[in-house]
Amino acid sequence: xxxxxxxxxxxxxxxxxxxxxxxxxxxxxxxxxxxxxxxxxxxxxxxxxxxxxxxxxxxxxxxxxxxxxxxxxxxxxxxxxxxxxxxxxxxxxxxxxxxxxxxxxxxxxxxxxxxxxxxxxxxxxxxxxxxxxxxxxxxxxxxxxxxxxxxxx
Length: 153
What we know:
153 residues, alpha+beta, eight-stranded antiparallel β-sheet
């Protein structure tokens, strides 16, 4: 995957957390994945189509998901509930939407986000997609953004 496809996701994640959630992230070491089992229990997933297609997954520890919901809704949930799931979907949509704007040349459209919760869930990016994992830490805990994009033709 080309670095110019990854950089918008790095920038958009940092910006969304900083401006929308008032939470500063620290980025870890990028890594390549051939298969994907999220490390964290709450995963927002959004598909991309256009001149390139792919999937973006924002995977959050439960504590990060709850704190993000609190920052967005003004109420701290006791556990992962419907509001936390909605907030994780919206967070995924904001990160992917901001990155999409920086990838104009690929003329991509975003699907509606889906959120999966629970331990040991698996996400398929398709056999032709190699994913880049971008880990982050913050005062709330850990999260990662997984990106798998394949250019068409």
